[in-house]
Specification:
461 residues; Gyrase A, domain 2; Four Helix Bundle (Hemerythrin (Met), subunit A); 3 domains; 7-stranded mixed beta sheet; 6-stranded mixed beta sheet; 13 strands; 47% helix
Length: 461
């Protein structure tokens, strides 16, 4: 498969020590020859593969030196895209790297689309679709655990398991074909029913194992939407600042200081939290604060985890009671803050309303109770189960949806066999399972979906 030569800046925009302009395609070396002048004066085609070479980027139309660079030369197919790749390492200023990019575009390259380098790696068979998606998961990983899950997927752990399951289905379908082609042998039908049931149940069990990891995997990939709620001035913003370890939110003794929703990502013992500090929920005549309260109620409905904050030095109020009703049926950790002040709250009432939810006491002013809170969050969602490094985690929403569909299809096949329906009917459901699993790794997926997936990538990746 041949493509034109693409180029893009592969490092974040802004000032830095180094910026990289990457080219990939059959003309990459020819374009580099037009703009790069090395100290040896050789053609780029003569450079050894996977070497880095010192020289200058020169505009041949004017003879002006544009940049002093180190240029990496990598000959396909032993590259990420399986094409010839040039990486020009420039100084990290906005002007210099853009000048180099414009020069390679002027000399025959085309500006890459978002994710086009990784898309080429997929289309050229360097990685499958699940591995390609893991590249973006790795870039976006918020914790070490999330990074490890992405690395495992990038190395093909999920792909290998999916391919194994598809092979099992393929072998089972071969048995079904024997039955259809040779119906005169009664023992073949009996054998085929037995094999079909055994293999289908094995595949279903393996899919169920993957789906059991999906909730944790999705949390690691996307983060827990965690909402801090409570009456005004109970310490919600102080809690946000304590977890983030910097002053992101304004903290005062004046109720209603937080008027809007504040979001921040934090890493709590390997669990990524998309932490949301809300305006204190109360009845108010202040128009701006009332809008903040309404936004708080909205994000509450979308949360994965609620941190409900109460004031140790206040009487338990009707508003507190209403908050407990608002979070019924959700994952909640109750935080009783300001234990450095005299107790006024009825802790027995708090524990009664909290029911099976964890209750943690804190003094955020004196930095007490944060460790206990972090432990409660980690235990609630993972309870140590992520320490099993040999497990294959599914974290991608697309993969989870396809696995659920595949599970439904294989279930139909099993139910059909157990009810004595004709084998060729079960074959349809089994084939559908095989196709759905193939969509995960990109072996049976529509071109428009591929375009949509890679459009979410960075420009130079």
């Amino acid at each position: 498969m041949e493509f034109d030569t693409i180029a893009a800046i592969s490092t974040p925009m802004g000032e830095g020590a180094i910026a990289i302009v990457r080219l990939s395609g059959d003309q990459a070396f020819d374009i580099a020859d037009k703009v790069f002048k090395g100290i040896k004066g050789n053609s780029v085609h003569e450079f050894a593969s996977h070497t880095i070479n010192y020289g200058h980027i020169v505009d041949s139309s004017t003879g002006a030196v544009v940049e002093e660079v180190m240029m990496s030369v990598m000959k396909g197919p032993k590259t990420f895209t399986r094409e010839d790749i040039i990486e020009i390492n420039c100084h990290g200023g906005l002007v210099s790297v853009n000048k180099v990019l414009q020069l390679v575009l002027k000399n025959g390259a085309r500006l890459a689309e978002p994710g086009e380098f990784t898309k080429r790696a997929f289309l050229n068979g360097r990685v499958d679709l699940s591995q390609a998606e893991a590249v973006m998961d790795l870039i976006r990983a918020k914790t070490d655990r999330a990074m490890n899950v992405a690395l495992n997927q990038m190395e093909g752990r999920l792909s290998k398991l999916i391919r194994k399951l598809r092979q099992e289905i393929l072998e089972t379908l071969a048995h079904v074909e024997v039955n259809i082609d040779y119906p005169e042998y009664d023992d073949v039908e009996e054998m085929t029913h037995g094999v079909l049931l055994e293999k289908s149940k094995y595949v279903r069990d393996e899919i169920e194992k993957l789906l059991r990891t999906s909730e944790q995997g999705k949390i690691l990939r996307e983060g827990l939407s965690t909402v801090i709620v409570g009456r005004p001035n109970v310490g919600k913003s102080s809690l946000l600042n304590s977890l983030v370890h910097e002053n992101k939110a304004i903290v005062t003794d004046i109720p209603g200081t937080t008027r809007d929703v504040i979001e921040e990502y934090v890493n709590v013992r390997g669990v990524p939290l998309r932490l949301v500090d809300t305006a204190g929920i109360r009845e108010t005549e202040d128009i701006v604060e009332r809008i903040g309260v309404e936004r708080s109620r909205q994000v509450l409905k979308e949360a994965d985890l609620i941190l409900l904050v109460l004031n140790y030095s206040d009487e338990f109020t009707y508003e507190d009671e209403q908050l407990f009703k608002a979070v019924e049926g959700m994952d909640v950790i109750v935080i009783v803050n300001k234990t450095d002040l005299p107790q006024k709250i009825d802790m027995d009432r708090v524990k009664e309303l909290a029911a099976e939810h964890a209750v943690v006491t804190t003094s955020l002013l004196e930095e007490q109770g944060i460790d206990e809170l972090e432990e409660a969050i980690s235990t609630l969602f993972f309870a140590g189960s992520l320490e099993a490094g040999d497990m294959t985690y599914v974290s991608n929403s697309r993969h989870i949806a396809l696995l659920n569909q595949a599970h439904g299809a294989i279930d139909e096949a099993i139910n059909g066999v157990e009810m004595g329906t004709p084998i060729d009917i079960a074959q349809i459901d089994l084939t559908r399972t095989w196709e759905l699993l193939g969509e995960i790794i990109g072996e049976s997926v529509h071109e428009s979906l591929i375009d949509q997936l890679f459009s979410q990538f960075c420009l130079g990746k």
